[in-house]
Each structure stands twice: as structure tokens, then as C-alpha cells.
Amino acid sequence: MQLSKILQNIEYTLIKGNTETEISDVIYDSRKVTEGTVFVALKGYNVDGHKFIPQAVKSGASAVVISDNVDIPEDIQGVSLLPLLKGERPKDWRKSLYYHFYEYPAEHAVKRHYGVRTERYKLIHFYNDIDAWELYDLKKDPREMHNLFGKPGYEKITEKLKGELVKLQTQYDDPIESQLKK
Questions:
Q1: CA distance 91 to 89
Q2: Burial status of residue 162 (CB atoms within 10 A of its CB: 0-12, 13-18, 19 or more)
């Protein structure tokens, strides 16, 4: 079941993870957390589950649901989605999204790649056994059928997106570029 279905009609304060993630179980005991589970940090009479968040994340929790304002461990990336869920548009909200797909070969058979997506464009770099770039104008080509990388007239947006890509790789401490240069 998707996390978004589990959280439907539940008022919550903060969520870390992707709400479209497939969830195998909802766990409140951090010792039982495995890959694909949601860890719910409950504040009990004797024990506060919030202190076990790092252990749950290390064990593979796909998401963490908390009931108190707590310090989120440094190695967890993300920000609160609460403003978006309330219909607000924060002024400092990100303008782009970085992703890295490295699970090849896997059931989807998608080559290893990373990319950056803005509201309008998506720049992708495939690596490992291939070295290929793709650029899509999502407004004109939402199905990503026409690769614009290297085409005349797209040089400026390509350079801008490559700069954003490097910025986000640095921000998220993804060393892939330095590894590829070896």
C-alpha cells in the first residue's frame, strides 16, 4: 500500500520520505524496522520513540512519522511537507529536484542515471556502461519522447541545468561526478 493511502484522513505534523512509496508495514518498535516500513515514533509513558529515529532510519525505514517537534538527524534529507499539504506555497521552496537511479539491473531495467527536474525541463545523465545525456521540455513534450540535448537553441538551458545539477549533487553529498572522473 502507498504511504499516501495510509496517511489519508490523518492529521500529522511532519513526514520524511516519499508519500508515493510502497509501504510493507507500519512499525512503532524500531527493532522491527526493515526496508520499506514506516516507523511511527510514539511518545510513551516510559519511553519516547523519537529517540529511536536514527536506528529506524539506519534499518531502512522508508518514512518516519513523528508526533513531537524533534531535531531531525543530519543524515536525513528533506523538509517538512506540511505547508504544501495545507495548500501553502513557501517562498523559499525549491525550484528543482535532484534524483539518482542506481539500481541496475533491476526489475525496471532502467540504466543508471541521475538528473535534475524543474517545472519545465528535465536533464538526465546516463552513466556506467554508457555516457549519454538527455534533455526534455516537459511543457512541449510531457512524455519525454524528443531528446533536445545538443540541439541548437538549448545551450543556455542545458548549461543552467548542469550548474543546478552540480549544486544539488554537492548539497546532497552525491559523489557520482568525482567517481566518474576516475
A1: 6
A2: middle
Amino acid at 143: R
pLDDT, averaged in runs of 10, over the chain (182 residues): 68 56 81 85 80 86 72 63 72 86 77 93 93 96 97 97 93 76 62
pLDDT value of position 25 = 83
pTM: 0.59
Q: How far, in Å, CA of 124 to CA of 111, rounded?
A: 11
3-class state of residue 159 by DSSP? helix
Q: Nearest Cα to 99, choosing from 117, 119, 111?
A: 117
Q: Which residue has the cell 508526533?
A: 67
Backbone angles phi, psi at 7, to 5 degrees: -85, -5
Checking phi first, is residue 87 left (phi over 0); if not, alpha (psi -120 to 50) or beta?
Answer: left
b/e for 60-73, b at 16 or more Cβ within 10 A? Answer: ebbbbbbeeeeebe
Judged by DSSP in three states, 30 sits in helix
